[in-house]
Amino acid sequence: MTEEEIPPLRISVDVACSAEHAFHVWTARIAAWWPVGHRATDEAGTEVVLEPRLGGRLLERTSSGREVQWGEITAWEPPHRLAYRWHIRRDPADATEVEIRFVAVEPGAARVDIVHLGWERLGAAGPDWRERNLGGWNGVLPEFLRAALSGDPGPS
Fold first, then answer.
1. How many angstroms from the chain centroid is the CA of residue 11?
2. Which of 52, 83, 84, 137 counts the most CB atoms within 10 A of its CB?
3. Which of 61, 81, 80, 79 is nearest to 70 (CA)?
């Protein structure tokens, strides 16, 4: 496989809530559900922050106030679409791209479609980093699904 042929990760999950609620949980409540084992630092008391705007940052803030940026918001279209450059534990020049769509399927049910691409900019490390990120998504998404089904009503 050449670097140009690294396929994007495409992941879809169904959730028993509205697309609006799923978007709210992903963005406004990310600190409550993002797993500790999927953060950049090992410091206790870290918080995940997603700044809700185009150009906003996705970052980790430690209890001492240190910020470790994970990415930058490149599309902000509540409550249906979010995209960001993703470079957790990497140089920002090596950022991959994540696009997440929140699609209403029927009342009280949505599908979350994730496309994670740009592995070719990592050169020879691209295929391995793609597989590591697939494992990361498999660890993160169950936590998101649990949070989306919680009692927090989200936006009205």
1. 12
2. 84
3. 61
